[in-house]
Amino acid sequence: MRCPFCEANETKVVDSRLLKEGLSVRRRRKCENCERRFTTYESIEIQMPVVVKLDGRREPYQKDKVLKSIAKACGKRPISTEQIERVIDNIEKNVLEISTKEVSSKQIGHLLMLYLRNLDPVAYIRFASVYRTFQDVEEFVHDLQHEEETFNSSTR
Ligand SMILES: [Zn+2]
Fold first, then answer.
1. Cα 20 to middle of ligand 1, angstroms
2. pLDDT of the residue at 19
């Protein structure tokens, strides 16, 4: 790995640590030339299945979208980023168990509900009440954003 500071090719690994139950590695490296230190992360890249939306359109799985809908539902609740990340890791594991090729947005929404129910009752109710109406995570996020905009403009 090339040094990001002086671009020398000789860098040495000074420390290695396994993260996420061994699925990723964090390495501290030291440049042999300028002696500066930097960190690299190595993780397994898993190909997620394609998401089939309610209207039949297909789109690549986007972790970001799942993250946003959980974060929205958990807004102002005592839930840490680590807890949310763990939920996403579990959802992705379950999704891969359903299929490695295609999964519906509805199935992802159901998994989200199951995990939110265990995580936080308020976040669960927030998610479930809107999800049951829209049956689509994407619309849920959109709707919440819209609600916020309406709220913000009415309080201005
Ligand atoms: Zn260097």
1. 29
2. 84
Rounded to whole angstroms, how far apart are CA atoms 77 and 123?
7
Q: Is 58 in a helix, a strand, or coil?
A: strand
- Ligand 1 centroid–CA 52 distance in Å is 47
Mark the residues whose beta carbon lies below 5 A from ion ligand 1.
3, 5-6, 8, 31, 33-34
Torsion angle of the four alpha carbons 133, 136, 140, 143, in this order, in degrees rounded to the nearest 10: -80
Ligand 1 centroid vs 34 CA: distance in angstroms?
4
Q: Rg of the chain over CA atoms, in angstroms?
A: 20
Q: How far is the CA of 43 from the centre of ligand 1 (A)?
A: 24
Write down the pTM of the prediction. 0.62
Whether the Cβ atoms of residue 101 and residue 49 lie closer than 8 Å to each other:
yes
pLDDT tens readout for residues 105-126 = 889 988 998 999 999 999 998 8
Name the helix (H) or strand (E) containing 119: helix 105-119
